[in-house]
Specification:
By secondary structure, this protein is mostly helical. It has 6 helices and 4 strands; from the N terminus they run αααββββααα.
Length: 173
């Protein structure tokens, strides 16, 4: 699909810009707020989950968003872990030296010793992958300032406001 992502119909209704051209009658409306963390999360991931649920605008996260939100939570936890390792182990690590023994056809042995070399920490790759995954989910979930501005009207007093808007959107069909 080229161009901008379409704005959800509920946001058009909230903003007062609902016109025949931008109302999608068959657009699904997810129900149920996202609250409880799945049991399979670690303690750190549960803390991140609870913090994000507590500080996200009311009614923003729905049960349908669980897997995307779960990916964001795991990416943030991995990002924190990688950052901790980079702080403690440093940005450059020694790649261990090695040795090789070569036996020639005449039976003599040659021992070759390679000295350790400094290489970038493998946690950089993990950090960058987690950061990329987190940033992709951030824009989809409405956690960045620019994505929040697109859904700013949902940041009412809580789930009650979001449900009121959902009821209006459901009445359009």
């Amino acid at each position: 699909m080229k161009g901008r992502k379409p704005k959800p119909t509920v946001l058009h209704i909230i903003a007062g810009t609902a016109r025949a051209r931008n109302i999608r009658v068959n657009e699904p409306i997810p129900v149920g707020g996202l609250l409880a963390a799945p049991a399979r999360l670690t303690e750190t991931q549960i803390e991140i989950w609870r913090y994000a649920i507590e500080h996200s605008p009311g009614g923003l996260l729905r049960k349908l968003d669980r897997d995307l939100f779960l990916g964001w939570v795991r990416a943030v936890a991995t990002l924190d872990e990688a950052e901790m390792h980079l702080r403690t182990e440093g940005r450059v690590v020694n790649k261990g030296g090695s040795q090789r023994i070569t036996i020639k056809p005449d039976g003599t042995q040659t021992k070759t010793v390679y000295s350790p070399t400094e290489v970038p920490s493998p946690w950089f790759k993990i950090y960058n992958a987690a950061y990329d995954q987190m940033m992709k989910a951030v824009s989809e979930l409405g956690f960045s300032p620019t994505s929040r501005s697109r859904i700013g009207a949902l940041a009412g007093s809580g789930a009650k406001d979001a449900n009121r808007f959902s009821k209006h959107a459901a009445g359009r069909a």
